[in-house]
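Q: Give me the 3D complex with PRP.
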Amino acid sequence: MDKNAITIALPKGRLLLDCVKILSEVGIKAEEDLSTTRRLLVPSEDGSARFLIVRDKDLPVYVDYGAADMGIVGKDVLMESKKNILEPLDLGFGYCRIVVAQPAVAMGLSNTSGWGHARVATKYPNIAERHFAARGEQIEIIPLYGSIELAPLVGLADRIVDLVSTGETLRQNNLVEVQDVMEVTARLVVNRASMKIKAERLVPLIEALRENLQRW
Ligand code: PRP
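A: Here is the predicted complex, encoded as structure tokens.
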């Protein structure tokens, strides 16, 4: 391993294949298939980099503490983490949205401006808090880890704040969008100290990724 090797954190899950593709297009290839290996720390073929495979919610922590020099993560996870890390590039892939949704049957019962103390289930408590605070709406957040769409169906919450990609999960659970919260794409993130100390490696790499994006 090159002593100037850079450490790149990538998230397990739906963004991983595009992350591997975009990095290989600028010449950084892992020595084994990152989507199938059980190794969590994998060198690149040429030893100039190594990859950390982490849970997406943990990725900003690795980059913030400098355990990884850079990484790729969804804007949703980045916003939710509140970490003060650099975000030099919007990579454009992994597009989805965060929305407020509620049961279709509740639509006629109240308008969205009258949501006094509605309960809102979400895996994004910080994003949800900020969204409703900006609108001056008093709500109670019910933090959950997944299957968010279930909460209004069983009376745990009145509404949800969650990701929508195809919209299929909302449709199949008879929920409808009532507010847009934010658009989400994959972002390149960089540790602040690494950007200075390893500028010779990182700046050309960021530029190569930026140029390559025009071909996506
Ligand atoms: C995400 C999200 C929605 C679903 C949206 O969940 O929280 O539930 O995908 O996708 P769709 O609009 O294409 O139906 P995920 O698959 O990450 O699982 P989770 O509920 O366990 O978080």
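A quick observation: DSSP finds seven helices and eleven strands in the chain.
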